[in-house]
Amino acid sequence: MAKKTVASLQTSSKRLTKAIKMVKSPKSGAYTFTEAVMDPSKVNDWLSKQ
Protein backbone atom coordinates (compact mmCIF):
# COMPACT_ATOMS: atom_id res chain seq x y z
CA MET A 1 0.00 0.00 0.00
CA ALA A 2 2.87 2.40 0.73
CA LYS A 3 4.28 1.74 -2.73
CA LYS A 4 1.00 2.86 -4.28
CA THR A 5 1.03 6.10 -2.29
CA VAL A 6 4.62 6.92 -3.24
CA ALA A 7 4.04 5.98 -6.87
CA SER A 8 1.02 8.26 -7.10
CA LEU A 9 3.08 11.20 -5.81
CA GLN A 10 5.53 10.95 -8.69
CA THR A 11 4.66 13.21 -11.57
CA SER A 12 6.20 13.33 -15.00
CA SER A 13 8.62 16.16 -14.18
CA LYS A 14 9.10 16.11 -10.39
CA ARG A 15 9.66 13.41 -7.81
CA LEU A 16 8.01 14.02 -4.45
CA THR A 17 8.29 12.30 -1.09
CA LYS A 18 5.67 12.00 1.62
CA ALA A 19 7.27 12.36 5.06
CA ILE A 20 5.49 11.48 8.30
CA LYS A 21 6.80 12.69 11.66
CA MET A 22 5.59 11.75 15.13
CA VAL A 23 5.39 14.79 17.44
CA LYS A 24 4.78 14.70 21.20
CA SER A 25 2.44 17.35 22.57
CA PRO A 26 3.96 19.21 25.53
CA LYS A 27 0.51 19.90 26.94
CA SER A 28 -1.05 16.43 27.06
CA GLY A 29 1.91 14.17 26.34
CA ALA A 30 0.03 12.49 23.48
CA TYR A 31 1.68 11.81 20.13
CA THR A 32 0.35 13.19 16.87
CA PHE A 33 1.47 12.55 13.31
CA THR A 34 2.43 15.37 10.96
CA GLU A 35 2.54 14.69 7.23
CA ALA A 36 4.08 16.70 4.43
CA VAL A 37 4.75 16.17 0.71
CA MET A 38 8.06 17.67 -0.41
CA ASP A 39 11.18 17.36 -2.52
CA PRO A 40 13.38 14.43 -1.35
CA SER A 41 16.35 16.73 -0.69
CA LYS A 42 14.39 18.66 1.96
CA VAL A 43 13.18 15.67 4.01
CA ASN A 44 16.12 15.52 6.43
CA ASP A 45 15.85 19.23 7.20
CA TRP A 46 12.10 18.92 7.86
CA LEU A 47 12.55 15.88 10.11
CA SER A 48 15.27 17.57 12.17
CA LYS A 49 13.04 20.56 12.98
CA GLN A 50 10.83 20.39 16.05
Cα gyration radius (Å): 13 Å
Number of strands: 2
* Mean pLDDT metric: 79
Which spans of ≥5 residues are poorly predicted at pLDDT below 50? none
Strand order of the largest sheet: 1-2
| Major sheet attributes | 2 strands, antiparallel
Q: End-to-end distance, in Å?
A: 28 Å
Report the structural category.
alpha+beta
| Shape type | elongated
Report the order of strands and helices.
HEEH
Number of helices: 2
* Helix content estimate: 25-40%
Strand proportion: 25-35%
Write up what this structure looks like:
The chain is an alpha+beta fold and 50 residues long. It has helices at residues 2-9, 43-48, and strands spanning 17-24, 31-38. Strands 1-2 form a two-stranded antiparallel sheet. Strand 1 (17-24) and strand 2 (31-38) form a beta hairpin. The longest helix is centred in the first third of the chain and has 8 residues, at 2-9. The termini are far apart. The model has no long low-confidence stretch (mean pLDDT 79).
Please render the helix and strand layout as text.
Blueprint: H1 2-9, E1 17-24, E2 31-38, H2 43-48
Q: Gist?
A:
The protein is of the alpha+beta class.
What brief labels describe this structure?
50 residues; alpha+beta; two-stranded antiparallel sheet; 2 strands; 28% helix
